[in-house]
Amino acid sequence: MKARVTVTLKNGVLDPQGKAIEGALGSLGFDGVGSVRQGKVFDVELTAGSEGEAQDKLKSMCEQLLANTVIEDYAITLVE
Amino acid sequence: MKARVTVTLKNGVLDPQGKAIEGALGSLGFDGVGSVRQGKVFDVELTAGSEGEAQDKLKSMCEQLLANTVIEDYAITLVE
């Protein structure tokens, strides 16, 4: 089973990396860029008996390792 | 207009960070994890006259700054 986990900063958490990208896009001449926020994506291949089991496993992986739930949100999408 | 740009390593490009996560998941007792590959996601807010114009702008941003097209692929999704 393949899944994509997307981890993004919660609203209100400062994102200096995103700000730097915003600045760089401005310097390159792109105008009309409002805000940029950077996150992470994990493509995970795993074996699981059912979609539900896979969701549970992935949720647990996010809580324990992939995301810092104090400042980050995560979203799990099963791809196939 | 809001868009999400997802940048992932091309197939065949080594991903040591992904490998480290794979190992860490194993140490935490998650079994059945095949492979993990890590990528980046950018949430961009921009003003554009039309969806097509936004797509063009974002494509150009990816080529010039957001992705290293030698080793990375990118995907653009307009969110709203």
Structural summary, described in words:
Two copies of one chain form a homodimer. Chain A has 80 residues and is of the alpha+beta class. Chain A has one domain (2-78): Mth169, Chain: A. Chain A is 35% helix and 36% strand. Chain A has two helices and three strands, in the order βαβαβ. Chain A has a three-stranded antiparallel sheet with strand order 2-1-3. The longest helix of chain A has 16 residues, at 51-66. Chain A starts with a strand and ends with a strand. The interface between A and B is medium-sized, with 31 and 31 residues.
Brief account:
Two copies of one chain form a homodimer. Chain A has helices at 16-27, 51-66; strands spanning 2-9, 33-46, 72-78.
The ordered H/E elements of chain A are: EHEHE
Can you tell me the overall shape of chain A? elongated
Number of domains of chain A: 1
Distance between the termini of chain A: 6 Å
Low-confidence stretches of chain A: none
Q: Rg of chain A, please?
A: 16 Å
Instruction: Tell me how many strands of chain A there are.
Output: 3
Mean pLDDT of chain A: 95
Strand content of chain A: 35-45%
Main sheet of chain A, how many strands, which sense, barrel?
3 strands, antiparallel
Most residues in contact: chain pair:
A-B, 31 and 31 residues
Assembly context of the chains: homodimer
- The appropriate CATH architecture of chain A is 2-Layer Sandwich
Q: Which strand order do you get reading across the main beta sheet of chain A?
A: 2-1-3
CATH class of chain A equals Alpha Beta
- The assigned structural class of chain A equals alpha+beta
Helix coverage percent of chain A: 25-40%
What is the CATH topology descriptor of chain A?
A: Mth169, Chain: A
